[in-house]
Design a protein that fits this description.
Radius of gyration: 19 Å
Number of domains: 1
Structural class: alpha/beta
Distance between the termini: 25 Å
Shape: elongated
Helix content: 25-40%
CATH architecture: 3-Layer(aba) Sandwich
Bound molecules: 2'-O-acetyl adenosine-5-diphosphoribose
Number of helices: 10
CATH topology: Rossmann fold
CATH superfamily: TPP-binding domain
Strand content: 5-15%
Number of strands: 8
């Protein structure tokens, strides 16, 4: 039974005209970026990520929240994309009708060559002004350097150069709406695809978790890559139990081999 599923998945992917790849924190795990539900490590362990990632926490203590995001940003800078990220970039390059949608706020898809990832939850690399939500222009004290601010360190957020309001992380906080254009594009792509690959997500945080379900309802073949079962199992045509860095490169190689041999 084991090798039948990957072969069937490779055939579906190889024949697909419109592919959506939907990723969660699990795709960054093998790059050393812990998943969202992993316990916070070190000095951050005493904090609850779900409480830090809120507008209330930022307004109550901007230095603490900005310090946490700067620590996360520097950790992502020190991470490298893996073969799974590169396999997704290969799908985007080879299948004109493909779309990459991520819940992650890191830039590992882009650094692996994905040209147009839809970020449903924003990005660590697009801080914005709290006043007008325009992209913040400010002198980025940490851009480029891989030095890691000490864990747990409070860092005063910069001020927007054009209006002097505080700059905040460009991510979606709990209780905030997702960027409308990103969500609309993701829903449209999910409703129109014929293969939907969901990789490394627990599929429990809405509205993002609705995207794979939209694809399934629209008749797409949903293929899941995750070492663990998730609530998405029951809507998937195929569940590949494995990690992103192991399964994705093998799946993509098999898919292109199957089509190139025809
Ligand atoms: P989670 O931490 O909820 O789930 C990570 C998933 O990745 C789990 O199902 C793991 O089994 C799986 N996983 C772990 N290692 C993996 C690997 N090497 N390869 C493949 N899969 C692996 O992360 P998300 O589902 O992304 O929202 O969480 C969704 C959202 O919840 C996040 O975007 C965040 C959080 O609230 C916001 O920040 C708004």
């Amino acid at each position: 039974m084991e090798d039948v599923l990957p072969r069937r998945a490779a055939q579906l992917l190889g024949d697909a005209r419109r592919v959506v790849v939907f990723t969660g924190a699990g795709i960054s795990a093998e790059s050393g970026v812990p998943t969202f539900r992993d316990d916070l490590t070190g000095l951050w362990a005493r904090f609850d990520a779900q409480r830090l990632a809120t507008a209330e926490a930022f307004h109550a203590d901007p230095d603490l929240v900005w310090g946490w995001y700067e620590w996360r940003r520097s950790r992502v800078r020190r991470a490298e994309p893996h073969a799974g990220h590169r396999a997704i970039a290969a799908i985007e390059a080879r299948v004109p009708g493909s779309t990459v949608i991520t819940q992650n706020v890191d830039d590992l898809h882009e650094r692996a060559g994905t040209r147009a990832a839809i970020h449903l939850h924003g990005s660590l690399f697009t801080p914005r002004c709290v006043a007008a939500a325009h992209p913040a222009t400010f002198e980025d004290r940490h851009d480029g350097d891989a030095t890691q601010p000490p864990e747990g360190r409070r860092i005063p957020p910069p001020r927007c150069a054009s209006c002097m309001a505080l700059v905040r992380p460009g991510v979606v906080w709990f209780g905030e709406a997702l960027p409308e254009a990103a969500l609309t594009a993701a829903v449209e792509a999910a409703a129109a695809c014929d293969v939907f690959l969901t990789v490394g997500t627990s599929g429990v945080v809405y509205p993002a978790a609705e995207i794979p379900r939209i694809a399934a309802r629209a008749g797409a073949a949903v293929i899941q890559i995750n070492p663990e079962p998730t609530p998405l199992d029951q809507i998937c045509a195929i569940n590949l139990r494995g990690t992103a860095a192991q399964v994705l490169p093998a799946l993509v190689a098999a898919a292109w081999k199957a089509t190139d041999e025809r």
